[in-house]
Amino acid sequence: FDDRDGWIWIDGKLVPWREANVHVLTHAMHYASSVFEGQRAYGGTIFKLSDHSARLRKSAELLGFELPWTVDEIDAACNEVLKANGLTDAYMRPVAWRGSEQMGVSPKGTKPHLAIAAWEWGKYFKPEIAAKGLRLDIAPWRRPAPYTAPVHSKAAGLYMIATLSKKHADDRGYDDALMFDWRGQVAEATGANTFFIKDGQLHTPTPDCFLNGITRQTVMDLARRRGVEVIERAIWPEELEGFEQMFITGSAAEVTFIRSAGPWNFEIGDLSRQLAKDYDDLVNRRLNT
Ligand code: PMP
């Protein structure tokens, strides 16, 4: 992914894509002192940009470092990257980390850095697979307890269990994985939140040990606007048998239908389709906020 044309913003400057490098003795690479964002631009407008920039700052703060760029400055840099690369519909990846100024577990003496890249990225899942609904593996790893890690930070370190679970799913021919939390409750997919439908009501697990996704919050609003009751609560795997529909949400994944999760099967019903359409209309500015 490093050998292509384009411009990447690093610490205030645009540099050619191939030259956007960091040193091997970067604190983040050894000790996971890195946080990131993922957002999409639709027709030249980055959806909920300031929410993403604010979450990036918050994620860093939860790891004990402050970014010397304000939300407005990060927003402006994201727009600059989009323009510099001549993109209107793109995925964007801001990433912030502790640098190579010092080596050792102590972060003292390291400086915060920020890079922002953007590239064309169609659907997160292949459209022909997503159209039928994904098949989810049950992840062998669980989301950690809030007292063991800063679980509300979009921290690279927390993606170790996501990449392991995704690989486990890939190796077994599944499209993604459903992760439980340390209590055994339903948590999320490897890069998206989860929703279930039963009797016209929307159920979603309480985000007390995983990200309260920006897409998740958006879809909950869209559902309420349609008069759908949204129930946020602890969901146990045994209950999955009784749900009729399931989908996942994320800035990259958008609204993606699920056909099965482990032994549990779902249908792609009208409400799932309606909410996916509402989300698509909203991000493409065909729906008023
Ligand atoms: N959970 C995880 C682990 C994720 O990586 C993402 C994607 N950022 C989400 C949930 C959904 O978050 P959002 O809707 O803000 O993109």
UniProtKB/TrEMBL annotation:
GO terms for biological process: isoleucine biosynthetic process; L-leucine biosynthetic process; L-valine biosynthetic process. It catalyses: L-valine + 2-oxoglutarate = 3-methyl-2-oxobutanoate + L-glutamate; L-isoleucine + 2-oxoglutarate = (S)-3-methyl-2-oxopentanoate + L-glutamate; L-leucine + 2-oxoglutarate = 4-methyl-2-oxopentanoate + L-glutamate. Acts on leucine, isoleucine and valine. The gene is ilvE. InterPro entries: Aminotrans_IV, Aminotransferase-like, B_amino_transI, BCAT-like_C, BCAT-like_N, Class-IV_PLP-Dep_Aminotrnsfr. Keywords: Amino-acid biosynthesis, Aminotransferase, Branched-chain amino acid biosynthesis, Pyridoxal phosphate, Transferase. Its cofactor is pyridoxal 5'-phosphate. It comes from Sphingomonas xanthus. Belongs to the class-IV pyridoxal-phosphate-dependent aminotransferase family. Pathway: Amino-acid biosynthesis; L-valine biosynthesis; L-valine from pyruvate: step 4/4; Amino-acid biosynthesis; L-isoleucine biosynthesis; L-isoleucine from 2-oxobutanoate: step 4/4; Amino-acid biosynthesis; L-leucine biosynthesis; L-leucine from 3-methyl-2-oxobutanoate: step 4/4. One of its GO terms (molecular function) is L-isoleucine-2-oxoglutarate transaminase activity. This is Branched-chain-amino-acid aminotransferase. PANTHER family: AMINO-ACID AMINOTRANSFERASE (PTHR42743), AMINODEOXYCHORISMATE LYASE (PTHR42743:SF11). It comes from the Bacteria. Its EC number is 2.6.1.42. It is an enzyme of class 2 (transferase).
